[in-house]
TrEMBL record:
Chain's gene name: amrS
Transmembrane regions listed in the UniProt entry: none
Keyword Disulfide bond tagged: no
Pfam families per the UniProt record, alphabetical: Radical_SAM
Location of the Radical SAM core domain: 72-287
CC cofactor note: Binds 1 [4Fe-4S] cluster. The cluster is coordinated with 3 cysteines and an exchangeable S-adenosyl-L-methionine.
Keyword check for Coiled coil: no
Single Gene Ontology MF annotation: 4 iron, 4 sulfur cluster binding
Sites where the protein binds [4Fe-4S] cluster: C87, C91, C94
Protein name: AmmeMemoRadiSam system radical SAM enzyme
Amino acid sequence: MRTSELKEAKWWKPTDRGKILCTLCPRYCEIGEGQPGFCYIRQNIGGKLYSIGYGKPTGFAIDPIEKKPLNHFLPGTSILSFGTAGCNLGCKFCQNWSISKAKLDETYSVEASPEDVIALAKKYRTPSIAYTYNDPTIFGEYVIDISKLAREEGIKNVMVTAGYIDKEARKEIYQYIDAANVDLKGFTERFYFKNTFSHLDYVLDTIYWLKHETNVWIELTTLLIPGENDSDDEIKQECQWILKNLGDSVPLHFTAFHPDFKMKDKSPTPHSTLLRAKRIAETEGIKYCYVGNVLDAKNQSTFCEKCGSLLIERNWHNIKFHHFDKGKCTKCGFQIPGIFN
């Protein structure tokens, strides 16, 4: 493909060793001529870095927004979802590995300009767009161009991400983003380095920044893997960090692992583990904690923290509203944190 048909990347600089330093994420890949970075879709061509995944999603889906998961952002609505090939993490437990671990030429992709994506959202009347499936950090240029157009059309933008991003790059990528679900994959450096080939502190810094320096609504998800990140101590430490740094009202999702990719030797997460984690979170003071990837209507539903009334009943992704109007409990008038219709 001619370079005139490719999107020149942002966030890079030449090195004195004849390579390119990509500054999009904390990997800071040094990329030689003709080579891609760790993510597969940022490539050095002729001494310039190109975003070869730009305009080449692996496909589109209309999802319930609860699938992201987001429980306090436009609940009960649909969301146009897409991703590309590649990823900047190396999660051994990846549930979307056929996409995230694929190179662009190994994955069937479609052509879609930013204008095409907006047209799809309008055609299917989805009030928001999700950049998801792989980590949208790696196609940040595409995210910026789509999300800017979406903002102009009154369409919301959602990132589903691991939060592994450079401090300067994130300012541009998130400028038109309305909500994010950040995968807080565990709470030890050992877990992150061993199982994702990344580092915990960068993720925590991104989460803190999103909460305190942007207007992005955030929710967190931790996939609990038996014997890896599901101890009482680790869950308690995670919850204590959230309370100290983010407050008690950021929704926290504990979801069930199923054996996949390079962790097929692990057992699925017992339902009881999710309930144990939820009890720990609530005991520590987390106001909105949910379980996921299991059938459990009670522990996926939202209750008023003031009077205890059932407000949003979730049975998997089926939604029913009770005593709830535009974010308020109609029984006691309490305003639930979030962004609602």
